[in-house]
From TrEMBL:
<feature type="binding site">
    <location>
        <position position="48"/>
    </location>
    <ligand>
        <name>NADP(+)</name>
    </ligand>
</feature>
<feature type="binding site">
    <location>
        <begin position="41"/>
        <end position="42"/>
    </location>
    <ligand>
        <name>NADP(+)</name>
    </ligand>
</feature>
<feature type="binding site">
    <location>
        <position position="225"/>
    </location>
    <ligand>
        <name>substrate</name>
    </ligand>
</feature>
<feature type="binding site">
    <location>
        <position position="190"/>
    </location>
    <ligand>
        <name>substrate</name>
    </ligand>
</feature>
<dbReference type="GO" id="GO:0005975">
    <property type="term" value="P:carbohydrate metabolic process"/>
</dbReference>
<feature type="binding site">
    <location>
        <position position="188"/>
    </location>
    <ligand>
        <name>NADP(+)</name>
    </ligand>
</feature>
<dbReference type="GO" id="GO:0050661">
    <property type="term" value="F:NADP binding"/>
</dbReference>
<comment type="similarity">
    <text>Belongs to the NAD(P)-dependent epimerase/dehydratase family. HldD subfamily.</text>
</comment>
<feature type="binding site">
    <location>
        <begin position="20"/>
        <end position="21"/>
    </location>
    <ligand>
        <name>NADP(+)</name>
    </ligand>
</feature>
<keyword id="KW-0521">NADP</keyword>
<comment type="function">
    <text>Catalyzes the interconversion between ADP-D-glycero-beta-D-manno-heptose and ADP-L-glycero-beta-D-manno-heptose via an epimerization at carbon 6 of the heptose.</text>
</comment>
<feature type="binding site">
    <location>
        <position position="180"/>
    </location>
    <ligand>
        <name>NADP(+)</name>
    </ligand>
</feature>
<feature type="binding site">
    <location>
        <position position="63"/>
    </location>
    <ligand>
        <name>NADP(+)</name>
    </ligand>
</feature>
<feature type="binding site">
    <location>
        <begin position="83"/>
        <end position="87"/>
    </location>
    <ligand>
        <name>NADP(+)</name>
    </ligand>
</feature>
<keyword id="KW-0119">Carbohydrate metabolism</keyword>
<keyword id="KW-0413">Isomerase</keyword>
<dbReference type="InterPro" id="IPR036291">
    <property type="entry name" value="NAD(P)-bd_dom_sf"/>
</dbReference>
């Protein structure tokens, strides 16, 4: 590809490094022999810090001093993956979300422009709201989107700001992550994937409770989401690091909506357990903001040359649950 020295000594920055996707991305980079990783995060959660165990990292930089660090070290930075964000969709502290998700990303963007550093950042499928305009990453449609929660709005606000900038990094991509699941998400609590919750609930109780449908168009358990395996997500990130053209905002899902019943049945099968599924009311605090269907249109990413096959839901669940069972 010609972008990197043979020894891969150029620094690659990964923000959100001890988080779910960030740590999996570092694992992928290490696997590809990129070990000069600058890990940016808060590092104040011993549980999350476990995600970096066994990985090769050149330096750890606290999130709060990263801008100053970059101002000093920019000449050695080859690429920035800005994966870190406040991802709680039930949080209503708009000031905090604006600070951590919108303003912080602007600061990184502006430095990538100034220092000529390519940037991939995490957006979210939460920007699509109820999906009334579909799930198409056509940038002309983005101003019409109406996110359902402050988290989605914080991501939408940055996407709109980025598209509006006259000065952009020479290469940049915003990735609208859909429902990502996979290893290293155990610290996320309520925000962890349904696969994680199903695994734990089945292990502890022998059964799984799914949200009842409050929409007459969908039967219980037949609400549909685009579930994407984290390994596919980091494969796309890695590919974009080498591609470095066709800047813009891209969907990153599997491209195939599946039901929560499909997912839960796959978890039971992967655990070797007999199916036992029941239904509970969707919590009132999220009921009116609940997405009944999401499916990423992946044509745009394919059109720029990405051709790697995504995991089928059953494949990803089997691999992930297998890893959980092994401890």
């Amino acid at each position: 590809m010609g972008y990197f020295a043979e020894n891969h000594s150029d620094m690659i920055v990964v923000t959100g490094a001890v988080g779910f996707i960030g740590s999996q991305l570092i694992e992928k980079l290490n696997f590809e022999n990129f070990n000069a990783i600058v890990a940016v995060d808060k590092f104040d959660n011993p549980l999350k810090n476990r995600n970096l165990e066994g990985l090769k990292v050149l330096e750890k930089v606290d999130r709060d001093i990263f801008m100053q660090w970059l101002d000093v070290n920019y000449e050695e930075v080859e690429f920035i993956f800005h994966i870190g964000a406040k991802t709680d969709t039930t949080l209503f502290d708009t000031e905090l979300l604006n600070k951590l998700n919108t303003s912080y990303t602007r600061e990184i963007w502006n430095r990538c422009v100034k220092y000529q550093i390519p940037l991939v950042y995490a957006s979210s499928a939460a920007t699509y709201g109820l999906g009334e305009h579909g799930y198409d990453d056509n940038e002309k449609l983005i101003p019409k989107l109406k996110p359902l929660n402050p988290y989605g709005q914080s991501k939408q606000d940055f996407d709109l700001w980025a598209l509006d900038q006259e000065e952009k990094p020479f290469y940049w991509a915003g990735l609208k992550f859909f429902n990502v699941y996979g290893p290293n998400e155990y610290h996320k609590g309520r925000m962890a994937s349904v696969v994680w919750h199903a695994y734990n609930q089945i292990r502890e109780t022998g059964g799984m409770k799914l949200f009842r449908s409050h929409n007459p168009e969908y039967k219980d358990g037949e609400q549909m989401r685009d579930f994407v395996y984290v390994k596919d997500v980091v494969d796309v990130c890695y590919w974009l690091m080498h591609h470095r053209r066709d800047s813009g905002i891209y969907n990153l899902g599997s491209g195939k909506a599946r039901t929560f019943l499909d997912l839960t049945q796959a978890v039971f099968k992967a655990m070797g357990k007999k199916e036992s599924i029941s239904f509970i009311d969707t919590p009132e605090d999220i009921r009116d903001k609940y997405q009944y269907f999401t499916e990423a249109n992946m044509d745009k990413l394919c059109s720029i040359g990405y051709s790697r096959k995504f995991h089928e839901l059953e494949e990803g669940v089997e691999e992930y649950v297998g890893r959980l069972l092994r401890g």
